[in-house]
């Protein structure tokens, strides 16, 4: 896994996004790399905001920004034509462009030609390393935790980052392992699992979390959902290749349908735990679920507290919102390390 050297600070680009779930890259950078984010910029029609100051590319460059990051992770990872003018304006203002999309920046003639003329960098981070092996399935030393979700974009990355930080705060040797473009931008390295050829995806997960000291924890960012009609393959590859000792299942209360697939209902937490343990036991027979992470961002403090307590009693497991912390999160951390 190569380290990613990126021009910083960032201006976060939100495109013309109207669905907050598709702006998870921008929100992730705001929340976990806020010191590197100068502000946000968007096209006309966008309704999503990170809450950072709205700056034109010229204003952002004057404030110290040195790149504009595409903060959108839309379905399919495409770069629409309607964004080109904003990307060109950013380059003309002096900013390099960083993208985590499936589409490659240099594949667009107008962007490539402008970058070459202006001396700007076009940086795609959603590129897997060369030489990924087919998974061996062989056991390896070290401890591993994998976050799984009932759907996309509901807290797997945030949960993994929060747990890795909590482990480190307790003096435990722990590493956050990024598996998506946002995590890679935050961590400075990782493997974009959804860009790996399917036959090598479980091998990429093995490569991402290699054999380590017996007391070292790799906290691995989950992707997709085992029930997702489009992305279950990457979720299963991560589960088999990571061989996690522990899983934490992530869920957003109140979400009824799979993001971007309204014809599919979001599965239940217990159902997700059961399937994950059955499938994960193929490569890690001792796999266990340490608890549940709830994304309660849409609830007030008291409603979140009651729901967390109710779900914990119902499931018989520690349940917490890592972003709220508190005693419930401490119990989840302790369960992970038990």
From TrEMBL:
Which Pfam family is one of those matched by this entry? Answer: DUF1611_N
Q: Which residues form the D-glutamate N-acetyltransferase-like C-terminal domain?
A: 134-328
Q: Which Gene3D superfamilies match?
A: NAD(P)-binding Rossmann-like Domain, P-loop containing nucleotide triphosphate hydrolases
D-glutamate N-acetyltransferase-like N-terminal domain location: 49-128
Q: What is this protein called?
A: DUF1611 domain-containing protein
Natural source organism: Lysobacter niastensis
């Amino acid at each position: 896994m190569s380290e990613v050297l990126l021009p910083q600070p960032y201006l976060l680009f939100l495109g013309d996004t109207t669905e907050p779930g598709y702006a998870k890259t921008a929100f992730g950078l705001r929340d976990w790399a806020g010191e590197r984010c100068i502000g946000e910029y968007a096209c006309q029609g966008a309704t999503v905001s990170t809450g950072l100051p709205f700056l034109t590319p010229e204003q952002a460059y004057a404030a110290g920004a040195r790149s504009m990051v595409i903060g959108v992770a839309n379905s399919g990872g495409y770069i629409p034509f309607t964004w080109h003018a904003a990307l060109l304006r950013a380059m003309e203002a002096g900013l390099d462009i960083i993208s985590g999309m499936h589409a490659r920046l240099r594949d667009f003639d107008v962007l490539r030609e402008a970058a070459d003329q202006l001396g700007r960098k076009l940086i795609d981070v959603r590129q897997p390393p060369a030489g990924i092996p087919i998974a061996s399935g062989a056991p390896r030393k070290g401890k591993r935790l994998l976050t799984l979700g009932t759907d996309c974009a509901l807290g797997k990355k945030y949960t993994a980052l929060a747990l890795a930080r909590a482990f480190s705060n307790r003096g435990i040797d722990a590493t956050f392992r990024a598996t998506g473009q946002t995590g890679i931008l935050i961590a400075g390295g990782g493997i974009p699992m959804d860009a790996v050829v399917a036959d090598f995806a479980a091998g990429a997960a093995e490569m991402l979390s290699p054999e380590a000291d017996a007391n070292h924890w790799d906290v691995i960012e989950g992707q997709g959902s085992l029930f997702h009609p489009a992305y279950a393959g990457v979720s299963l590859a991560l589960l088999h290749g990571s061989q996690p000792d522990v899983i934490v299942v992530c869920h957003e209360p109140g979400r009824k349908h799979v993001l971007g697939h309204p014809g599919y209902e979001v599965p239940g937490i217990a159902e997700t735990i059961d399937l994950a343990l059955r499938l994960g036991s193929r490569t890690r027979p001792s796999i266990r679920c340490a608890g549940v992470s709830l994304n309660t961002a849409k609830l007030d403090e008291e409603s979140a507290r009651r729901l967390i307590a109710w779900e914990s009693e119902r499931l018989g497991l520690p349940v917490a919102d890592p972003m709220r912390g508190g005693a419930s999160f401490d119990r989840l951390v302790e369960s992970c390390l038990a």
